[in-house]
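=== RUN LOG ===
request id: a7f3
mode: sequence -> structure
chains: 1
length: 415
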Amino acid sequence: MQRADPRASVRHLVLDELSGGMVERLDAPSASFLNASGLARASPMGMGLYRIEPVGKVGSVRTPTVQLDVRPKDRLGLGRLLFLLSYAGEQGFRPDAVAADEERDLWSALAESLAQLAERALGRGVLQGYLTVDESLRTVKGRIRISDQISRRPGMLVPLEVSYDEFTEDIAENRILRAALERMGQVPGVRPEVLGRLRQLKGKLDAVTRLPSGAPVPPWKPTRMNLRYHAVLRLAELILRNASAESGEGKQQTASFVVDMAQVFEDFVGTALRSAMAAYPGELRLRYNALLSEAVRDSDRLSVRPDAVHLLGGRPVVAYNAKYRAASDAGASLTADHYQVLAHCTALAVPTAWLVYAGKGEMKLRRILNTDIDIVEFPLDLSLPPSDILDSIRDLARQSWGEVARVSASSTTGG
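=== RESULT ===
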Protein backbone atom coordinates (compact mmCIF):
# COMPACT_ATOMS: atom_id res chain seq x y z
CA MET A 1 0.00 0.00 0.00
CA GLN A 2 2.92 2.35 0.67
CA ARG A 3 5.56 3.03 -1.98
CA ALA A 4 8.46 5.03 -0.65
CA ASP A 5 11.56 6.17 -2.51
CA PRO A 6 14.50 5.98 -0.07
CA ARG A 7 16.40 8.51 -2.19
CA ALA A 8 13.69 11.15 -1.91
CA SER A 9 13.22 13.54 0.97
CA VAL A 10 9.45 13.35 0.50
CA ARG A 11 7.77 10.06 1.41
CA HIS A 12 5.26 8.86 -1.16
CA LEU A 13 2.13 7.16 0.23
CA VAL A 14 -0.55 5.61 -1.95
CA LEU A 15 -4.12 4.66 -0.99
CA ASP A 16 -6.96 3.11 -2.96
CA GLU A 17 -10.12 5.21 -2.55
CA LEU A 18 -12.05 2.16 -1.26
CA SER A 19 -9.35 0.88 1.08
CA GLY A 20 -9.57 0.83 4.85
CA GLY A 21 -6.64 3.19 5.27
CA MET A 22 -3.14 2.93 6.71
CA VAL A 23 -1.18 3.89 9.81
CA GLU A 24 1.80 6.18 9.17
CA ARG A 25 4.07 8.58 11.01
CA LEU A 26 3.30 12.20 10.12
CA ASP A 27 4.42 15.58 11.36
CA ALA A 28 1.62 17.74 12.75
CA PRO A 29 1.64 20.37 9.95
CA SER A 30 1.35 17.66 7.26
CA ALA A 31 -1.52 15.99 9.13
CA SER A 32 -3.29 19.32 9.48
CA PHE A 33 -2.89 20.17 5.79
CA LEU A 34 -4.08 16.71 4.79
CA ASN A 35 -7.25 17.13 6.84
CA ALA A 36 -7.83 20.63 5.48
CA SER A 37 -7.44 19.44 1.87
CA GLY A 38 -10.45 17.11 2.12
CA LEU A 39 -8.58 14.30 0.36
CA ALA A 40 -8.28 12.04 3.41
CA ARG A 41 -8.70 12.04 7.18
CA ALA A 42 -5.63 11.84 9.41
CA SER A 43 -6.54 10.79 12.97
CA PRO A 44 -3.85 10.96 15.67
CA MET A 45 -3.01 7.71 17.45
CA GLY A 46 -0.19 8.98 19.64
CA MET A 47 3.61 8.79 19.35
CA GLY A 48 3.47 10.71 16.05
CA LEU A 49 1.38 8.02 14.37
CA TYR A 50 -1.77 8.82 12.39
CA ARG A 51 -4.42 6.65 10.83
CA ILE A 52 -4.96 7.91 7.27
CA GLU A 53 -8.33 7.01 5.74
CA PRO A 54 -9.88 7.90 2.36
CA VAL A 55 -13.10 9.94 2.47
CA GLY A 56 -14.50 9.43 -1.03
CA LYS A 57 -12.19 11.81 -2.90
CA VAL A 58 -9.22 11.11 -5.16
CA GLY A 59 -6.17 13.17 -5.98
CA SER A 60 -2.85 14.10 -4.45
CA VAL A 61 -1.63 16.20 -1.53
CA ARG A 62 2.00 17.18 -1.17
CA THR A 63 3.73 18.77 1.80
CA PRO A 64 7.46 19.33 2.40
CA THR A 65 7.72 15.85 3.99
CA VAL A 66 5.04 13.62 2.46
CA GLN A 67 2.98 13.10 -0.68
CA LEU A 68 -0.28 11.18 -0.40
CA ASP A 69 -2.00 9.90 -3.53
CA VAL A 70 -5.53 8.50 -3.33
CA ARG A 71 -6.14 6.53 -6.51
CA PRO A 72 -9.53 5.84 -8.12
CA LYS A 73 -11.10 2.41 -7.66
CA ASP A 74 -10.05 -0.34 -10.07
CA ARG A 75 -6.71 1.49 -10.22
CA LEU A 76 -7.74 3.71 -13.09
CA GLY A 77 -4.71 5.43 -14.54
CA LEU A 78 -4.00 9.14 -14.61
CA GLY A 79 -4.84 9.34 -18.29
CA ARG A 80 -8.32 7.98 -17.67
CA LEU A 81 -8.91 10.29 -14.70
CA LEU A 82 -7.90 13.36 -16.70
CA PHE A 83 -10.04 12.20 -19.63
CA LEU A 84 -13.13 11.96 -17.42
CA LEU A 85 -12.43 15.36 -15.88
CA SER A 86 -11.85 17.05 -19.22
CA TYR A 87 -14.87 15.51 -20.92
CA ALA A 88 -17.10 16.55 -18.05
CA GLY A 89 -15.74 20.05 -18.75
CA GLU A 90 -17.38 19.97 -22.18
CA GLN A 91 -14.79 17.91 -24.05
CA GLY A 92 -11.90 20.22 -23.40
CA PHE A 93 -8.91 18.31 -24.68
CA ARG A 94 -8.25 14.99 -26.38
CA PRO A 95 -6.99 12.05 -24.30
CA ASP A 96 -3.82 11.91 -26.40
CA ALA A 97 -3.06 15.52 -25.44
CA VAL A 98 -2.50 14.51 -21.82
CA ALA A 99 1.02 13.45 -20.86
CA ALA A 100 -0.12 10.99 -18.19
CA ASP A 101 2.45 8.23 -18.21
CA GLU A 102 1.03 5.76 -15.70
CA GLU A 103 4.42 5.36 -14.05
CA ARG A 104 4.53 9.03 -13.09
CA ASP A 105 2.59 10.88 -10.43
CA LEU A 106 -0.32 13.24 -10.88
CA TRP A 107 1.74 16.39 -10.47
CA SER A 108 4.18 15.33 -13.17
CA ALA A 109 1.30 14.50 -15.51
CA LEU A 110 -0.43 17.83 -14.94
CA ALA A 111 2.75 19.90 -15.23
CA GLU A 112 3.99 18.14 -18.39
CA SER A 113 0.53 18.28 -20.00
CA LEU A 114 0.15 21.99 -19.26
CA ALA A 115 3.63 22.72 -20.61
CA GLN A 116 3.01 20.78 -23.83
CA LEU A 117 -0.40 22.29 -24.51
CA ALA A 118 0.75 25.82 -23.65
CA GLU A 119 3.73 25.48 -26.00
CA ARG A 120 1.35 24.50 -28.81
CA ALA A 121 -1.03 27.36 -27.99
CA LEU A 122 1.71 30.01 -27.80
CA GLY A 123 3.79 28.62 -30.66
CA ARG A 124 2.41 31.24 -33.06
CA GLY A 125 2.55 34.03 -30.49
CA VAL A 126 0.28 35.27 -27.73
CA LEU A 127 -3.40 35.39 -28.69
CA GLN A 128 -4.89 38.87 -29.00
CA GLY A 129 -8.51 39.94 -28.89
CA TYR A 130 -10.81 42.84 -28.23
CA LEU A 131 -11.26 44.00 -24.64
CA THR A 132 -13.86 46.60 -23.66
CA VAL A 133 -12.21 49.38 -21.66
CA ASP A 134 -14.05 51.95 -19.52
CA GLU A 135 -12.04 55.14 -18.93
CA SER A 136 -12.29 58.83 -18.13
CA LEU A 137 -10.71 60.82 -21.00
CA ARG A 138 -10.53 64.45 -22.11
CA THR A 139 -11.30 63.46 -25.69
CA VAL A 140 -13.97 61.24 -27.22
CA LYS A 141 -12.88 57.68 -27.88
CA GLY A 142 -15.39 54.96 -28.63
CA ARG A 143 -18.76 55.85 -27.14
CA ILE A 144 -19.74 58.14 -24.25
CA ARG A 145 -21.42 56.42 -21.30
CA ILE A 146 -24.17 59.01 -20.85
CA SER A 147 -25.62 57.66 -17.58
CA ASP A 148 -22.17 57.50 -15.95
CA GLN A 149 -21.30 60.98 -17.24
CA ILE A 150 -24.46 62.48 -15.71
CA SER A 151 -24.19 60.65 -12.38
CA ARG A 152 -20.46 61.16 -11.86
CA ARG A 153 -19.89 64.59 -13.47
CA PRO A 154 -23.17 66.53 -13.60
CA GLY A 155 -22.83 69.71 -15.63
CA MET A 156 -19.22 68.97 -16.62
CA LEU A 157 -18.08 68.54 -20.22
CA VAL A 158 -14.72 66.94 -19.39
CA PRO A 159 -13.40 64.51 -18.55
CA LEU A 160 -15.70 62.17 -20.47
CA GLU A 161 -16.76 58.70 -19.34
CA VAL A 162 -16.16 56.56 -22.41
CA SER A 163 -16.03 52.93 -23.45
CA TYR A 164 -13.98 51.57 -26.33
CA ASP A 165 -12.68 48.26 -27.64
CA GLU A 166 -8.93 47.73 -27.49
CA PHE A 167 -7.09 45.00 -29.41
CA THR A 168 -4.81 43.56 -26.74
CA GLU A 169 -3.18 40.50 -25.21
CA ASP A 170 -4.87 41.26 -21.87
CA ILE A 171 -7.91 39.05 -22.52
CA ALA A 172 -9.63 36.33 -20.46
CA GLU A 173 -7.93 33.48 -22.32
CA ASN A 174 -4.44 34.73 -21.46
CA ARG A 175 -5.36 35.57 -17.88
CA ILE A 176 -6.59 32.01 -17.32
CA LEU A 177 -3.48 30.51 -18.92
CA ARG A 178 -1.12 32.73 -16.91
CA ALA A 179 -2.89 31.80 -13.65
CA ALA A 180 -2.60 28.06 -14.37
CA LEU A 181 1.08 28.37 -15.30
CA GLU A 182 1.75 30.26 -12.06
CA ARG A 183 -0.11 27.71 -9.95
CA MET A 184 1.68 24.69 -11.42
CA GLY A 185 4.96 26.55 -11.11
CA GLN A 186 4.39 26.72 -7.33
CA VAL A 187 3.88 22.97 -6.91
CA PRO A 188 6.78 21.39 -5.03
CA GLY A 189 8.44 18.45 -6.71
CA VAL A 190 7.86 19.43 -10.33
CA ARG A 191 10.93 18.40 -12.31
CA PRO A 192 13.35 21.32 -12.86
CA GLU A 193 13.23 21.08 -16.66
CA VAL A 194 9.43 21.19 -16.67
CA LEU A 195 9.43 24.01 -14.12
CA GLY A 196 11.76 25.96 -16.41
CA ARG A 197 9.39 25.50 -19.35
CA LEU A 198 6.43 26.68 -17.26
CA ARG A 199 8.31 29.81 -16.18
CA GLN A 200 9.41 30.54 -19.74
CA LEU A 201 5.82 30.23 -20.96
CA LYS A 202 4.55 32.49 -18.17
CA GLY A 203 7.16 35.05 -19.19
CA LYS A 204 5.40 35.40 -22.55
CA LEU A 205 2.30 36.50 -20.63
CA ASP A 206 3.89 39.01 -18.26
CA ALA A 207 1.95 41.85 -19.90
CA VAL A 208 -1.32 40.11 -19.01
CA THR A 209 -3.21 41.05 -15.84
CA ARG A 210 -2.58 38.58 -13.04
CA LEU A 211 -5.66 36.98 -11.49
CA PRO A 212 -5.74 37.66 -7.72
CA SER A 213 -5.70 34.63 -5.45
CA GLY A 214 -9.21 33.32 -4.96
CA ALA A 215 -10.65 35.33 -7.85
CA PRO A 216 -13.19 33.55 -10.07
CA VAL A 217 -12.00 32.26 -13.41
CA PRO A 218 -13.06 34.83 -16.04
CA PRO A 219 -15.56 33.56 -18.62
CA TRP A 220 -14.49 32.87 -22.18
CA LYS A 221 -16.19 31.46 -25.26
CA PRO A 222 -14.64 28.93 -27.65
CA THR A 223 -14.51 30.44 -31.11
CA ARG A 224 -12.67 29.92 -34.36
CA MET A 225 -10.34 32.79 -33.40
CA ASN A 226 -9.14 31.14 -30.16
CA LEU A 227 -9.20 27.56 -31.50
CA ARG A 228 -5.51 26.96 -30.77
CA TYR A 229 -6.16 27.80 -27.09
CA HIS A 230 -9.13 25.46 -26.54
CA ALA A 231 -7.18 22.47 -25.27
CA VAL A 232 -4.87 24.34 -22.91
CA LEU A 233 -7.70 26.48 -21.52
CA ARG A 234 -9.76 23.42 -20.58
CA LEU A 235 -6.77 21.94 -18.77
CA ALA A 236 -6.01 25.32 -17.18
CA GLU A 237 -9.58 25.57 -15.88
CA LEU A 238 -9.28 22.03 -14.53
CA ILE A 239 -6.11 22.98 -12.64
CA LEU A 240 -7.54 26.24 -11.28
CA ARG A 241 -10.76 24.53 -10.20
CA ASN A 242 -9.21 21.54 -8.42
CA ALA A 243 -5.62 22.37 -7.54
CA SER A 244 -4.10 24.68 -4.96
CA ALA A 245 -0.48 25.53 -4.25
CA GLU A 246 0.85 27.91 -1.66
CA SER A 247 3.98 28.85 0.22
CA GLY A 248 4.20 28.46 3.97
CA GLU A 249 6.93 29.62 6.30
CA GLY A 250 10.16 30.27 4.52
CA LYS A 251 10.23 28.36 1.24
CA GLN A 252 8.08 25.48 2.46
CA GLN A 253 5.38 24.71 -0.10
CA THR A 254 2.23 22.63 -0.07
CA ALA A 255 -0.07 21.60 -2.92
CA SER A 256 -3.29 19.68 -3.37
CA PHE A 257 -5.40 18.39 -6.25
CA VAL A 258 -8.65 16.89 -4.98
CA VAL A 259 -11.70 15.71 -6.92
CA ASP A 260 -14.94 13.95 -6.00
CA MET A 261 -15.09 10.90 -8.27
CA ALA A 262 -18.82 10.40 -7.72
CA GLN A 263 -19.44 13.92 -9.04
CA VAL A 264 -16.91 13.49 -11.85
CA PHE A 265 -18.64 10.27 -12.96
CA GLU A 266 -22.10 11.85 -12.81
CA ASP A 267 -20.92 14.89 -14.80
CA PHE A 268 -19.17 12.71 -17.38
CA VAL A 269 -22.14 10.40 -17.94
CA GLY A 270 -24.51 13.36 -18.20
CA THR A 271 -22.35 15.29 -20.67
CA ALA A 272 -21.55 12.25 -22.84
CA LEU A 273 -25.14 10.98 -22.78
CA ARG A 274 -26.52 14.39 -23.76
CA SER A 275 -24.19 14.38 -26.76
CA ALA A 276 -25.17 10.82 -27.73
CA MET A 277 -28.92 11.40 -27.32
CA ALA A 278 -28.74 14.43 -29.63
CA ALA A 279 -28.98 11.92 -32.50
CA TYR A 280 -32.56 11.06 -31.47
CA PRO A 281 -35.80 13.06 -31.28
CA GLY A 282 -36.51 15.00 -28.11
CA GLU A 283 -34.28 16.68 -25.54
CA LEU A 284 -32.13 15.35 -22.70
CA ARG A 285 -32.02 17.48 -19.56
CA LEU A 286 -29.58 17.05 -16.70
CA ARG A 287 -30.53 17.14 -13.00
CA TYR A 288 -34.23 17.22 -13.75
CA ASN A 289 -36.47 18.22 -10.84
CA ALA A 290 -39.81 16.43 -10.33
CA LEU A 291 -42.40 16.33 -7.54
CA LEU A 292 -42.90 13.05 -5.71
CA SER A 293 -45.73 14.07 -3.39
CA GLU A 294 -48.59 16.50 -3.02
CA ALA A 295 -48.85 18.83 -0.03
CA VAL A 296 -50.80 21.84 1.14
CA ARG A 297 -47.59 23.82 1.63
CA ASP A 298 -44.77 23.90 -0.91
CA SER A 299 -42.25 23.32 1.88
CA ASP A 300 -43.84 19.94 2.62
CA ARG A 301 -43.62 18.61 -0.94
CA LEU A 302 -41.19 15.79 -1.64
CA SER A 303 -39.16 16.05 -4.81
CA VAL A 304 -36.66 13.92 -6.72
CA ARG A 305 -33.89 14.86 -9.13
CA PRO A 306 -32.71 12.19 -11.58
CA ASP A 307 -29.28 12.78 -13.06
CA ALA A 308 -30.79 12.91 -16.57
CA VAL A 309 -34.24 12.71 -18.14
CA HIS A 310 -35.08 12.48 -21.84
CA LEU A 311 -38.19 14.36 -22.90
CA LEU A 312 -40.25 13.89 -26.04
CA GLY A 313 -42.77 16.60 -26.81
CA GLY A 314 -42.03 18.07 -23.38
CA ARG A 315 -42.99 14.83 -21.61
CA PRO A 316 -40.46 12.62 -19.75
CA VAL A 317 -40.05 9.23 -21.44
CA VAL A 318 -36.96 7.72 -19.76
CA ALA A 319 -34.75 8.49 -16.75
CA TYR A 320 -31.06 7.87 -16.04
CA ASN A 321 -29.04 7.76 -12.83
CA ALA A 322 -25.24 7.55 -12.65
CA LYS A 323 -23.66 5.75 -9.69
CA TYR A 324 -19.91 5.65 -9.30
CA ARG A 325 -20.19 3.04 -6.57
CA ALA A 326 -22.17 -0.15 -7.13
CA ALA A 327 -23.09 -3.10 -4.93
CA SER A 328 -19.58 -4.56 -4.92
CA ASP A 329 -18.07 -1.33 -3.61
CA ALA A 330 -17.51 -0.81 0.09
CA GLY A 331 -20.36 0.95 1.80
CA ALA A 332 -22.65 1.00 -1.24
CA SER A 333 -26.07 -0.58 -1.56
CA LEU A 334 -27.49 -1.45 -4.94
CA THR A 335 -30.88 -1.95 -3.29
CA ALA A 336 -30.90 1.68 -2.16
CA ASP A 337 -30.05 2.70 -5.73
CA HIS A 338 -33.06 0.74 -6.99
CA TYR A 339 -35.36 2.39 -4.46
CA GLN A 340 -34.16 5.79 -5.61
CA VAL A 341 -34.64 5.00 -9.30
CA LEU A 342 -38.07 3.50 -8.59
CA ALA A 343 -39.07 6.81 -6.98
CA HIS A 344 -37.86 8.65 -10.09
CA CYS A 345 -39.99 6.46 -12.35
CA THR A 346 -43.03 6.96 -10.11
CA ALA A 347 -42.66 10.74 -9.98
CA LEU A 348 -42.05 11.05 -13.73
CA ALA A 349 -44.56 8.36 -14.79
CA VAL A 350 -41.93 6.72 -17.00
CA PRO A 351 -41.79 2.94 -17.50
CA THR A 352 -37.99 2.53 -17.66
CA ALA A 353 -34.95 3.89 -15.88
CA TRP A 354 -31.31 3.16 -16.59
CA LEU A 355 -28.92 2.77 -13.68
CA VAL A 356 -25.44 3.51 -15.04
CA TYR A 357 -22.65 2.42 -12.73
CA ALA A 358 -18.86 2.45 -13.00
CA GLY A 359 -17.58 -1.10 -13.31
CA LYS A 360 -17.40 -4.24 -15.36
CA GLY A 361 -20.17 -6.78 -15.85
CA GLU A 362 -23.23 -7.56 -17.89
CA MET A 363 -26.25 -5.39 -18.49
CA LYS A 364 -29.21 -6.61 -16.40
CA LEU A 365 -32.94 -5.97 -16.71
CA ARG A 366 -34.90 -5.99 -13.47
CA ARG A 367 -38.69 -5.98 -13.71
CA ILE A 368 -40.14 -4.55 -10.50
CA LEU A 369 -42.92 -6.70 -9.08
CA ASN A 370 -46.46 -5.29 -8.96
CA THR A 371 -45.50 -2.39 -11.20
CA ASP A 372 -44.99 -1.71 -14.90
CA ILE A 373 -41.50 -0.38 -14.22
CA ASP A 374 -38.23 -1.79 -15.55
CA ILE A 375 -34.82 -0.86 -14.17
CA VAL A 376 -31.83 -1.59 -16.40
CA GLU A 377 -28.38 -1.86 -14.83
CA PHE A 378 -25.81 -0.66 -17.34
CA PRO A 379 -22.10 -1.12 -16.43
CA LEU A 380 -19.59 1.41 -17.77
CA ASP A 381 -16.05 0.02 -17.75
CA LEU A 382 -13.77 2.98 -17.12
CA SER A 383 -10.63 0.90 -17.65
CA LEU A 384 -11.36 0.82 -21.40
CA PRO A 385 -9.76 3.29 -23.82
CA PRO A 386 -11.65 6.62 -23.95
CA SER A 387 -13.02 5.91 -27.43
CA ASP A 388 -14.51 2.63 -26.19
CA ILE A 389 -16.03 4.34 -23.14
CA LEU A 390 -17.77 6.82 -25.43
CA ASP A 391 -18.89 3.94 -27.67
CA SER A 392 -20.53 2.40 -24.59
CA ILE A 393 -22.36 5.66 -23.89
CA ARG A 394 -23.58 5.71 -27.49
CA ASP A 395 -24.76 2.12 -27.05
CA LEU A 396 -26.63 3.21 -23.91
CA ALA A 397 -28.31 5.97 -25.91
CA ARG A 398 -29.22 3.60 -28.74
CA GLN A 399 -30.68 0.94 -26.45
CA SER A 400 -32.58 3.35 -24.23
CA TRP A 401 -34.07 5.15 -27.23
CA GLY A 402 -34.98 1.80 -28.77
CA GLU A 403 -36.96 0.97 -25.63
CA VAL A 404 -38.73 4.34 -25.77
CA ALA A 405 -39.67 3.73 -29.42
CA ARG A 406 -40.89 0.19 -28.64
CA VAL A 407 -43.10 1.33 -25.73
CA SER A 408 -44.43 4.23 -27.80
CA ALA A 409 -45.32 1.92 -30.72
CA SER A 410 -46.94 -0.57 -28.36
CA SER A 411 -49.15 2.08 -26.74
CA THR A 412 -50.09 3.47 -30.16
CA THR A 413 -51.26 0.08 -31.45
CA GLY A 414 -52.88 -0.81 -28.15
CA GLY A 415 -50.53 -3.77 -27.73
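=== NOTES ===
The two ends are 58 Å apart (CA to CA).
Residues 1-7, 90-103 have pLDDT under 50 and may be disordered.
=== END ===
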